[in-house]
Predict the 3D structure of the following.
Amino acid sequence: MGIFHELTVKPWALGQGKIDDLKAGRPSTRAAKQIALRVFLAVVAVLFTLLVTAYGGRMAYEDWRPAPQVSLLWANTLVLILSSVALQWAQYSVRRGQMDAMRVGLLAGGAFTVVFLFGQLLAWRQLATMVYFEVTNPAIAFFYLITGLHGVHLVGGLVAWGMTVAKVWGDFDVAKVRQSVELCTVYWHFLLLVWLVLFGLLFTGNNLDVLLKLCGIR
Amino acid sequence: MEYVAHDASAFAPPAEVEEVELYHPKTWVGKYIWSQDAKVIAIQYAITAIGIGLVAMVLSWLMRLQLAFPNSFHFIDPSNYLQFVTLHGMIMVIYLLTALFLGGFGNYLIPLMVGARDMVFPYVNMVSYWVYLAAVLLLVASFFVTGGPTGAGWTLYPPQAILQGTPGATWGIILMLVSLAFFIIGFTMGGLNYVVTVLQARTRGMTLMRLPLTVWGIFTATILALLAFPALFVSAIMMLLDLTLGTSFFMPALVSMGQQGEHTGGNPLLFQHLFWFFGHPEVYIVALPAFGIVSDLLSVHARKNIFGYRMMVWAIVAIGGLSFVVWAHHMYVSGMNPYFGFFFATTTLIIAIPTALKVYNWVLTLWHGNIQLTVPMLFALGFIFAFIHGGLTGLFLGNVTVSVPLSDTMFVVAHFHMVMAVAPIMVVFGAIYHWYPKITGRMLDDAMGKFHFWVTFLGTYAIYLPMHYLGFLGVPRRYYAIGGTDFIPESAHSLNVGITIAALIVGAVQVVFLYNLVWSYFKGKPSGGNPWGATTLEWQTPDTPPKHGNFGPTLPVVYRWAYDYSVPGADQDFIPQNVPAREVARGGKKT
């Protein structure tokens, strides 16, 4: 029964009562965690959407000076893609019962993420040493803010990842580990998607500018 | 119309649900301090919120004293006055109302009303409270730092919020912003819990459309808050960076005292957009739980089903959706494109449709009801008055052409206090009188309650009705002293004195309420499990107050919607949600 249909039923009517009585309760913590993650991702999505909108809104003013580009970000993007692929591999393996492969995928995913974060720090340093660097330039401040917030979300993910890694040695509850790996994978894919949007739109040239021009804002 | 109550065949199997693992504390500290029980967390939230709310109330007294008797109080200088205004607004809106409705009532009522043992993530729920408490303590700390708390106004508009010359422009504003960030992190933890519990932990038979409207209101408000608070979060962080690292997100190039400031080219309007993208949904984050709770109060105490249940649900959802596309009506005087203003005026006025629908349905619920003038009912009626009143002035202010001349006058203050302060606080009081018996097992004293209601209700009208008139005269808000002007007559000053006296009385009478809360806890009349004859699940618990786990060995099974009051043919004038049709007594015996 779709949500829209569910919201149109008349709960007081006789026939509907018979249908509703058969509705099972669903207090399963497993599904709860999946829903909680998705609701949280919606919150994160709003956060980054607002940042991109704020960036675009600021860009529309005449005094906008784009930030210099940091080519290291291309390599970082590749590493983040690899971390997502590794976690996807871990998920694929745990679903097939291949625990060794799952451990490899999980550890590789975490390792690539740590490399990505170091790469981002390096990119921060590179930008800071460029001649164009001015903390008062909004484009540069936005760069640090947005990459920083994205990095913080990955660090939070690494905490959950660490708790998952701690579970996968010796005797463990396969169902629980499987769920943890699945949740991590969804989170990593989502943060990769966010990064690709941020990177593609904001940090690889004036792509957002093209969009603003198309919309007639700039 | 057919009622489920007539159905003799409804016979559902018992709840086939996986038992939730509950954390069972062994020590007093584990039970009442580091508690993972949503009911205890709810009370922790409520006590903290009411405590900090009392501070905000005292701040409002100080403001009113200054306005009525300027130059009489040496401890209120212009800086202090602005700090009182700022902290009063911020505390009342966020740290009292948001925390009390969602953290307090949400935590207590959601698990009980949906038939769950607890929130789905009790540990996260506990952390949510402690982060909230940290946010409150950071806010309180700002009273004691050099320069005192921020005096930027509750909207914290840059550039003035962080410019030297504004009170608290160094430590006060930093603590304010950090406290807000903490509040939002804590709330997000709690909010995820409320949403997932409603979606995922309902007991057998509890469909979405069988949920009491209280749950609908809190649920929708939580979703609004989850999606709106990120805007405040990023703007708080960006302002912090502007202040501490010298970035220019919001700070434009400024010449101050003949000196070029260090900032270049920030955009102060960006802050206003971000702030109000949060700020307008915030109005409904406070209002929607109030709408939901008041619907249930009216239905229970008028012994009648809520009129138009489906419409009420749809209206809550519609208001929630619309609240995200009206924010710029707070910015009509910011120099926006006229088409922009036209768009936001239109969306704003469209909100009047679902809101009016709710008001009609409340009134129609009362129509031909068996109205019991209990204290909760009195407060619910008070809410309807205040809300209609504040809603109508909202129609004035939603129109650009009317709003512009009224901007920054006392009319605006009167409007938002009617709609967002008096109306929700009426519901808060009504709800406390209504659910106190479930929380403590004792009734609140009726005489003290009625006294509390009448003084509060008439008193708030004595405060805010004249304020509309002051606004029409052009008396500005946020001014420390008006001084001599031609357009403000002497009589306006007498009115200000009257308002202040009313405010002092209304504030003082809250002591009676607090005394009632404490006195009744020890000496109140024992209430029994269901003193109001209500249908919803929280009144059907085996123990009052409900024990950890809420429902004893088995979870209740739900057989009907939440509003089977005065069902024709049934002996009792209410049928609880967990009573199957075959157990409904008719003509002295069960069918």
Remarks:
- DSSP finds eight helices and no strands in chain A.
- Helices of chain A lie at 3-6, 14-21, 29-59, 72-95, 99-129, 138-167, 174-202, 207-214.
- Residues 29-59 of chain A form the longest helix (31 residues).
- Chain A touches chain B through 50 residues (CB under 8 Å).
